[in-house]
Design goal:
Structural class: alpha+beta
Helix content: 40-55%
Strand order of the largest sheet: 3-1-2-9
Radius of gyration: 18 Å
CATH topology of the largest domain: Alpha-Beta Plaits
Shape: globular
CATH superfamily of the largest domain: YebC, transcriptional regulation domain
Number of domains: 3
């Protein structure tokens, strides 16, 4: 399974834990507000907002919170104006990292992310230093308990999926962004339970880290970035064992 999938799986599990603590709500509210501000408050005509609402519902965010976040984005009620910024840098062993943030204070966020990188064996780079190593893709995870590989492949391939991979527990469906909604709706139409679905940045190649110490340092850096309040997504080309995150 790809390095992305391992990190994606860890982030998915972390989101479940964070949802129980209510911690993920703030990040989802920022995303809903920003999506509504950029593309309007109607999820039917705003794919980014539609996906953000679906994520919010999946972690049981109250409908009132979702509605309020949309209204803040459209300007119907007063709210903070979050700006989207992408940070690029390097982790241990020369691994590439991209960080998507939504912040109301770019200078503060930049300073704090630079500190996180430096404290965990990495360094924040210039815009464009690693972006060329990634491609924007849709990724959907489906549990292997749900359906056979052959049946799932037929469904998603006919719907426009680009590729499908698997590990011991899940199938990873890779999709061009313009076909993401079509594939997702086809899965839902066939009553196939989706573990997670998002538009993400997939690395073109992976850097496999086998040294246990470096792998743990990389895991610590990724988790520290994820924990930052202004960070929405963290992407990496590091392929590290899932065990490195256990501590």
């Amino acid at each position: 399974m790809s390095g992305h999938s391992k990190w994606h799986s860890i982030r998915h599990k972390k989101a479940i834990v964070d949802a129980k603590r209510g911690k993920i709500f703030n990040k989802l509210i920022r995303e809903i507000t920003t999506a509504a501000r950029i593309g309007g408050g109607d999820p039917e005509s705003n794919p980014r907002l539609r996906l953000a609402i679906q994520k919010a519902k999946s972690v049981n965010m109250p409908a009132d919170n979702i509605e309020r976040a949309i209204k803040k984005g459209t300007g119907e009620i007063e709210g903070v104006n979050y700006e989207e910024h992408i940070y690029e840098g390097y982790g241990p062993a020369g691994t590439a990292i991209m960080v998507l943030s939504l912040t109301d204070n770019k200078n503060r966020t930049t300073s704090e992310l630079r500190s996180i990188f430096s404290k965990n064996g990495g360094n924040l780079g210039e815009n464009g230093c690693v972006a060329w190593m990634f491609s924007k893709k849709g990724v959907i995870l489906v549990s292997k308990d749900t359906i056979s590989e052959e049946e799932l492949f037929t469904i998603v391939a006919d719907a426009g999926a680009e590729d499908m991979k698997s590990d011991e527990k899940t199938y990873e469906i890779i999709i061009e962004p313009e076909n993401f909604d079509t594939v997702k709706k086809e899965l839902e139409k066939n009553n196939i339970k989706i573990e997670s679905a998002e538009i993400t940045m997939l690395p073109q190649n992976y850097v496999k880290i086998e040294d246990e110490k470096i792998a743990k340092q990389m895991a610590k850096l990724l988790m520290a970035l994820e924990e930052h309040d202004d960070v929405q997504q963290v992407y990496t080309n590091a392929d590290i064992p899932e065990e490195a995150f256990e501590e």
